[in-house]
Design goal:
The chain has a single domain, classed as Roll (Thiol Ester Dehydrase, Chain A). Helix content is about 15%, strand content about 40%. The protein has 2 helices and 8 strands, in the order E-E-H-E-E-H-E-E-E-E. It has helices at about 10-15, 60-80; strands spanning about 1-5, 5, 35-40, 40-50, 85-95, 100-115, 115-125, 130-140. The strands form 2 sheets. Strands 3-4-6-7-8-5 form a 6-stranded antiparallel sheet, with helices on one face.
Length: about 140
């Protein structure tokens, strides 16, 4: 079985998948249930925002947006065969994200330097308007 052009076996070897994951877990009744397509050094998913993920009425909470972008970068890192944890995350919120918006989140690996992995992500509308951009440093987990 392949995910994008990455084998599911490679993904499972890189990081055990968690069916209860808040972002992508299909067994989490309160989760977002995003389905990521993974390719070489990248991952993407479609996301339709919903009521209940808000801060101000009708506007999606920045923490939820950050979580989705962090997951996209994490999936891109997994596609390269690494299991890594977020060490630092920076988000530039460019525009409000409203309830019922159809968006695309894309994450990609920028560089790997020993255990330090740099990644970026974008959250865009269907017409390509960027709503948010993320930069992160991940630390690869040491094999024990």
């Amino acid at each position: 079985m392949a995910v994008g052009n990455v084998s599911m076996e490679r993904v499972r070897e890189a990081a055990p998948l968690n069916s209860a994951c808040f972002v992508c877990g299909h067994e989490n009744p309160g989760g977002l249930r995003l389905e990521f397509q993974m390719g070489k050094k990248c991952a993407s998913a479609r996301w339709t925002t919903r009521v209940g993920w808000e801060s101000f009425q009708g506007i999606i909470h920045g923490g939820v947006i950050s979580t989705v972008m962090d997951e996209a970068m994490s999936k891109a890192i997994i596609s390269e065969g690494y299991e890594a944890l977020t060490a630092e995350l920076r988000i530039r919120f460019r525009m409000k994200v409203r309830v019922d918006e159809e968006l695309s989140v894309q994450g990609w690996v920028v560089s790997v330097q020993k255990r330090k992995i740099l990644a970026e992500a974008t959250l865009t509308t269907e017409d390509g308007t960027e709503k948010a951009h993320a930069w992160a440093t991940f630390l690869a987990v040491r094999n024990s």
